[in-house]
Design a protein that fits this description.
The complex is a heterodimer. By secondary structure, chain A is mostly helical. Helices cover about 40% and strands about 5% of the residues of chain A. In chain A, β1 and β2 form a beta hairpin. Chain B is globular and about 70 Å long. Classes of the chains: A mainly alpha, B alpha/beta. Chain A: This is Mono/diheme cytochrome c family protein.
Chain lengths: ~400, ~600
């Protein structure tokens, strides 16, 4: 992808002496900006299969309604978007209505992309026309009846979708507005981090407050101190998004992919803008947790399990040893309302994000083979309620649910 | 039928320490690099899982991580008058297997050889006269200590070695090893915190005028991020290093220092479970064309390449050269031929001090956690009045208190039953164990060649090891054993047991995996197989990297020198060889 771009840029530069020079140089600029839009929007996350050709169609997304397969968005005439016009592309990004009037399922985050500016959408389109066309037929819609009837989306949009580009808030700084534009628009953070209604739409008043996702829990990223990122400095957030490694935590699961493919390649100024915006989101959580008492039988059992299985890396005081072993004390991801992410990590293990700045990507090993559901529940209850942490106790059925999510 | 694959710039045989270092360096140079590894892929989270890696039966006793004789055996004998027989169960030494090689299961003692080692023949002749070296086949390495120093430094910083320098730019540093050669700077990390046994050992050693210092360790004293950006953890003293992979990212290995970066490089590729049968030469026999290997399903491939780097375990390097017909196999009768020449081992002996009133808590341990005395090592002391050359480090490195194998009992204890149990209970916590890591000097008769009778699963002859401890080395070892008795007496335990090493090397009981030589480096093509840059004298696009290049073995573990030589060879390839590929860097 980079190579073809470089080639184009070179071609454009060679053309300086020709009558088309100005437009060629402009076009190269536009393609380059469009490539950045593709990074901001993380198109590859869904539209590139692991190990597959770039943007030639992704692995199936498991939605609560059934599987959807992200289509081929290379400019192949028959199987990609080669026959689309720029105007059709723009309409699709704005409204979710694609080529030939076909309605897209909102797994394609057009409710976020609708906020992107005309220029950014047009740049992105220009870029997509330059990627290597790949012939790869994808049947996107593999939903069961009645969800496979695309017309139902008409009603969905009526209820859940507001079309329109981002409108700046003049009372806020340019940086804040840039952050808001990225988070709510191309970055489509709410796709994972906002809890969904029964219809799969963002829940009212719950923007970025954390949501279950593919057996993980995308945490609260609003400005609250307990479960949110209120205690993170802007620099902490920028470093985390840039490197995958924060002061206390290492990204894993879907966020590791988002960091590797998208945020680690964003400009620092954009990351700072995102941080400014996220930190400004109000902490209006009503429920505050109190830690379970240390003499609770689950805490006693959990501590023994922790000492035997976890403390060698995460240390007995829960402070860990960054940048290799995440701290558990004061780490928001272990204190979310839902224990899905820590349960996932203990049961299945995980490999951290890998970036140029932090190439180690250490592994959390799977411990499911040696701990019972009850033991996993107890050790997580202990971790969630020790060293200043406080979160609801974890039950065996929570663990079973996570176990079955895979 | 052999499948022919697309050409590569570089093929590396074996992805252990040296293969990983060279692969990373040459990938940085922009070359298209392929590593072919006989064993499986291995990584910390999946293969050295914190939940099961401390399984002594599986890894320590049944040796799960090691090369199995069914894959490759060797034959052994003590001298040329005997008929060699196959080693049907590796015991005396344990070659590694799989990605990371023996660097996965090592303890982590990370030494530099001394300046006097690289010019051993010249220096010892100068000091004691040529007659003293009679019966030995000592020779210079073709490089100087000053030349290799920066490459030791690179390896130590790659691996996060924890130690205390004894000599920085010629200035002796208190607390370090005063006998070491000058180094440009200190280790990247401070020494590990000492446990009781090495602390007491050091006190005793100092009381009789010796100079103990913390052993340089690849078990990390602190968290560390190496120059490649790879992070490592602080050692937790779990005591499962040798024979085990490290679950805590605390022991330096290819996995914990290089592979996270290397495996992401688009111009690097790894093929595991694939055994190289031989290096293919062109019709002239003077240039390598590539390698032939077999994958795990038995399919044979020919992999063309512009360069072949032989980076397997030292003994395997030697055998691959023999099987590929590169150079001439050494003949101990005529002294001609260089492949298999100057095979050496390590002259190891032990000591146990039994106390009544001590508790050493031996299970709080790490592979390279302890203290060393080098007063009787190498050329640190005057051999004038003595009847040998060489020496040994005296080490107190209580690496583990594992329940199956660590059961010290005094001599005369029954080997089972209630008396044995009683003795075990009383000695487990209160015994101090030492070992002397002695030099092993080459002779004309200790050597490697191909066995005339026994073959491997592909029908290739096995390697034959002809080895016994030279008289010089035995005299050295006995001298150092006497020093350990002195120390035992100074410490005043109940009983001091110092058995002396005997002639008659056998392949059963574990001694050490420090097998050196066979493809030695040097400045004379009649006595060395590779030049000072580890480039084959006979086939210039083949480099052979590892302990196989050692012209002798010093009284030190080899890994530090192996790592330094890998960086040294990488530098020569990047900055000299690639300017004019296919030509010799040193004219014969």
């Amino acid at each position: 992808m980079r190579h073809s771009l470089a080639l184009l840029v070179t071609t454009a530069m060679c053309a300086v002496l020709s009558p088309w020079s100005a437009s060629a140089a402009d076009q190269a600029d536009q393609i380059s900006r469009g490539q950045y839009q593709a990074i901001l929007g993380d198109c590859a996350a869904c539209h590139t299969k692991p190990g597959g050709q770039p943007l030639a169609g992704g692995a199936p997304l498991e939605t609560p309604f059934g599987p959807l397969v992200p289509p081929n968005i290379t400019p192949d005439l028959e199987t990609g978007i080669g026959s689309w016009t720029a105007e059709e592309f723009k309409t699709m990004m704005r409204t979710g209505i694609g080529h030939g009037g076909k309605r897209l399922y909102p797994a394609m985050p057009y409710p976020a992309y609708t906020k992107m500016s005309d220029r950014d959408v047009s740049d992105l389109w220009q870029y997509l026309t330059t990627v290597q066309p790949v012939k790869n037929e994808v049947e996107a819609n593999q939903l069961p009846f009645p969800f496979n009837i695309r017309f139902s989306l008409f009603g969905w949009n009526l209820l859940n979708f507001t079309e329109g580009t981002y409108q700046a808030d003049p009372s806020r700084s340019d940086e804040w507005n840039r952050g808001a534009y990225l988070v709510t628009g191309a970055g489509h953070c709410s796709t994972c981090h906002t809890p969904k209604s029964i219809m799969g739409a963002d829940q009212e008043g719950q923007f970025l407050k954390g949501s279950s996702l593919q057996g993980w829990y995308a945490p609260d990223i609003t400005g609250g101190n307990h479960t949110g990122i209120g205690s993170w400095t802007s620099d902490d957030i920028v470093t985390y998004l840039k490197t995958g490694v924060g002061t206390k935590t290492i990204a894993s699961g879907p966020m590791a992919e988002a960091i590797e493919n998208s945020t680690s390649r964003m400009e620092d100024a954009d990351l700072a803008a995102i941080a400014t915006y996220l930190k400004s989101l109000p902490d209006d959580s009503k429920a505050t947790s109190t830690a379970l008492p240390a003499n609770d039988p689950r805490m006693i059992a959990g501590q023994a399990i922790y000492r035997d299985n976890c403390s060698a890396c995460h240390s007995a005081d829960g402070k860990g040893a960054m940048p290799l072993f995440p701290a558990l004390s004061g780490n928001q991801i272990v204190q979310q309302g839902s224990p899905e992410t820590p349960a996932h990590l203990v049961l299945f293990g995980s490999q951290g994000a890998q970036t140029d700045a932090r190439p180690t990507n250490p592994s959390m090993p799977s411990l499911a083979w040696r701990l019972s559901d009850k033991q996993v529940a107890d050790v997580l209850t202990y971790v969630r309620n020790s060293w200043g942490n406080a979160a609801p106790a974890v039950t065996e059925s929570d663990i079973k649910k996570t176990m079955e999510s895979r | 039928m052999t499948n022919i694959l697309p050409r590569k710039d570089v093929v590396i045989i074996g992805l252990g320490w040296t293969g990983s270092i060279l692969a990373n360096e040459l990938a940085d140079e922009g070359l298209d690099v392929l590593a072919i590894e006989r064993g499986p892929w291995r990584d910390t989270g999946t293969d050295f899982n914190i939940g099961y890696v401390q399984d002594e039966l599986r890894y320590g006793i049944r040796r799960d991580l090691f090369l199995q004789p069914a894959v490759e055996a060797m034959t052994m004998r003590n001298n040329v008058s005997q008929t060699a027989l196959p080693i049907r169960d590796y015991g005396s030494f344990l070659p590694g297997n799989g990605v990371g090689g023996a660097g996965v299961h090592w303890n982590g003692h990370t030494w530099r050889f001394w300046d006097s080692d690289f010019e051993i023949h010249s220096k010892l002749t100068e000091r004691y006269g040529a007659a003293r070296l009679e019966g030995l086949q000592l020779q210079d390495w073709g490089i100087t200590g000053a030349e290799i120093e920066p490459y030791y430094d690179r390896f130590e910083y790659l691996a996060g070695i924890s130690g205390k320098a004894g000599n920085i730019n010629g200035k002796i540093q208190s607390g370090g090893n005063p006998f070491e050669s000058s180094r440009s700077r200190d280790y990247p990390l401070p020494p590990m915190q000492m446990t009781y046994a090495p602390t007491l050992f050091a006190e005793g050693a100092r009381s009789i005028g010796w100079h103990p210092f913390p052993t340089p360790s690849a078990n990390l004293s602190e968290a560390y991020v190496n120059p490649l950006g790879v992070a490592m953890g602080q050692c937790t003293f779990c005591g499962f290093c040798e024979r085990f992979g490290c679950a805590n990212y605390s022991k330096a290995s290819a996995q914990t220092t290089i592979l996270p970066v290397l495996m992401k490089k688009k111009n690097f590729q790894l093929r595991t479970d694939s055994e190289v049968l031989h290096i293919d030469l062109d019709k002239s026999g003077k240039m390598a064309r590539g390698v032939t290997y077999v994958d795990s399903s038995g399919v044979e491939f020919y992999q063309p390449a512009d360069m072949v780097l032989v980076c397997a375990f030292g003994l395997h390097n030697t055998r691959l050269m023999m099987l590929s017909g590169i150079g001439k196999i050494y003949d101990p009768q005529t002294g001609e031929g260089t492949i298999g020449r100057n095979y050496a081992y390590q002259t190891v002996s032990g000591a146990q001090f039994f106390f009544d009133d001590k508790n050493f808590n031996p299970f709080i341990a790490a592979g390279a956690l302890g203290q060393t005395v080098d007063d009787f090592n190498g050329d640190a002391f005057d051999h004038g009045p003595l009847d040998f050359v060489g020496g040994a480090g005296i080490n107190c490195l209580p690496s583990n208190g594992r329940p199956i194998a660590t059961r010290p009992v005094p001599p005369g204890t029954p080997r089972w039953g209630s008396q044995w149990k009683k003795a075990t209970v009383s000695a487990y916590k209160s015994t101090m164990s030492l070992f002397s890591q002695g030099s092993s000097y080459p002779t004309s008769y200790n050597h490697l060649d191909l066995d005339p009778t026994y073959k491997d699963r592909f029908g290739r002859p096995l390697m034959r090891i002809t080895f016994d401890f030279p008289d010089n080395d035995l005299r050295m070892s006995h001298y150092v054993s006497d020093r350990m008795v002195e120390l035992g007496n100074a410490l005043g335990g109940r009983e001091t047991v110092v058995p002396k090493l005997k002639k008659g090397w056998d392949a059963l009981a574990y001694q050490t995996t420090h097998n050196t030589g066979g493809v030695v480096m040097g400045n004379d093509p009649r006595t060395s197989a590779v030049n000072r840059y580890l480039q084959s004298w006979d086939v210039p696009n083949v480099f052979v990297v590892g302990a196989s290049a050692f012209a002798h073995n010093a009284g030190k573990n080899p890994t530090g020198t192996v790592g330094a030589l890998a960086f040294w060879a990488a530098d020569a390839i990047r900055n000299q060889y690639l300017r004019n590929p296919g030509t010799a860097l040193v004219s014969a």
